[in-house]
Design brief:
globular; six-stranded antiparallel β-sheet
Length: 113
Amino acid sequence: MNTYKRWLSFVLVDNSSFEELRSKIELAFRQELSCEDDEGRYIAMAKFDGFSIKVIDRIDRLSKFLCDDHYTLEITINTDDYFNYKFENHIKEILDNNSIQWGRSVWAPNKPN
């Protein structure tokens, strides 16, 4: 197991409000998300066995210039067991089955083999 974390980020192309999107994600993952204001941007989070998720608001209340076009779903994995395309496809299936539209995904800091 590596000592550093990897994450899988999704650009969510959803026109809902942040609260509506948060509710959709809670239903999709069957987990309540805690929410905090991180310097003007809402972030909703939940921890699972081996990974955690964050939903990051596209609106930054500090400045219009800091706003994004889309929401972000960030999945941080804590074990190499999830560093594979099977896990990525599992997350995509959860999103698709719950009508959560996403545009693209990317692994960081590198791709699975």
